[in-house]
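wait is this the right file?? whatever heres the structure
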């Protein structure tokens, strides 16, 4: 994957290491709502370490006698971390207690019934606490990086984990070179999302290179931060003030036949990037069933950030922040370290 430009390129890179141990990376899910206390779905909040979300949910379902296929969770949490999140299980006969539930790598924190299954995306965001080892002497640079990110936002890039080892090449072989598609529906959807993500990253990279990630340009499709609604405007002065106030943000393309396009300059830029990538209407039509297209904000808001020296080791830093759902801590840390 081509190296992506950094929003905070003017700040020197910080040398340090993170994720040497699971305890270096803590993630707490911020729920969109709390269980009501009644209903046939059991909501369980649990802590896990060195285990992925899907496996943890299956283990809990089996332990309480619920069908894993009927379980739900709002999002996937990293395996190599200590994370907390909610999951739901259809369980008409509610257990009196889960205190005795002993599963490797899993600790139940609380549980309560609710009328409905927990669905993907039903969360406000995630709270991260990261231990950056050997970086205490560079706290000023980390603090300056966070100042820029708080003001302008975190670039909403898709990271390397989205693309895998050769998924982008596979996507181009099928969708652009018109070679035979993968047999698996899962693989087809995956490769479409990889191509969409690559185009989005190219658009965002150009905006960062032009210092316009947090600038409204002519024809931009702007997304309301409080509702997700999108609009274009001819009043760029008003739009820019609202961007600065974090009321709205510019968006980029997750291309598809049903995606809403911007107008004017913003449209011309996106069309040029698609042309450079070899994507035309025939390509979009080729994957119409696997990805109809949508818009994605170019930036996300960094919340509740704090940088401090680690309480037990004066050589290390504790870095804390909150991100909305669908965004990743790696997008923040690559700005700090200037490394992917």
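ok assuming it is, sequence goes like this
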């Amino acid at each position: 994957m081509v190296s992506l430009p950094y929003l905070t390129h003017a700040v020197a890179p910080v040398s340090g290491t993170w994720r040497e141990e699971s305890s270096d990376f803590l993630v707490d899910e911020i729920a969109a709502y709390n269980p009501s206390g009644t209903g046939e779905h059991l909501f369980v909040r649990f802590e896990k370490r060195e285990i992925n979300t899907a496996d943890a949910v299956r283990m809990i379902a089996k332990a309480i006698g619920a069908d894993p296929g009927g379980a739900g969770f709002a999002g996937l949490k990293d395996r190599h971390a200590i994370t907390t999140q909610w999951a739901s299980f259809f369980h008409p006969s509610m257990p009196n207690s889960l205190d005795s539930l002993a599963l490797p790598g899993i600790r139940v924190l609380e549980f309560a019934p609710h009328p409905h299954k927990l669905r993907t995306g039903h969360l406000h965001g995630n709270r991260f606490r990261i231990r950056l080892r050997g970086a205490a002497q560079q706290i000023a640079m980390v603090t300056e990086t966070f100042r820029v990110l708080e003001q302008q936002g975190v670039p909403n890039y898709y990271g390397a984990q989205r693309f895998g080892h050769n998924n982008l090449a596979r996507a181009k072989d099928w969708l652009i070179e018109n070679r035979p598609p993968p047999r698996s529906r899962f693989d087809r959807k995956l490769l479409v999302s990889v191509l969409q993500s690559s185009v989005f990253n190219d658009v965002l990279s150009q905006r960062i290179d032009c210092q316009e990630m947090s600038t409204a340009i002519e024809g931009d499709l702007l997304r309301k931060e409080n509702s997700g609604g999108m609009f274009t405007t001819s009043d760029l002065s008003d739009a820019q003030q609202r961007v600065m106030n974090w009321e709205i943000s510019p968006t980029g393309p997750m291309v598809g036949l049903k995606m809403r396009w911007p107008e004017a300059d913003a449209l011309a830029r996106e069309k040029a990037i698609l042309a450079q990538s070899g994507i035309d209407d025939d390509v979009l039509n080729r994957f119409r069933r696997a990805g109809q297209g949508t818009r994605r904000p170019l930036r996300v808001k960094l919340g509740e950030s704090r940088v401090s020296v680690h309480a037990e080791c004066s050589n290390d830093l504790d870095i804390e922040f909150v991100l909305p759902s669908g965004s990743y801590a790696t997008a923040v840390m690559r700005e700090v370290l200037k490394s992917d």
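DSSP finds nine helices and 14 strands in the chain. so i think its the right one actually
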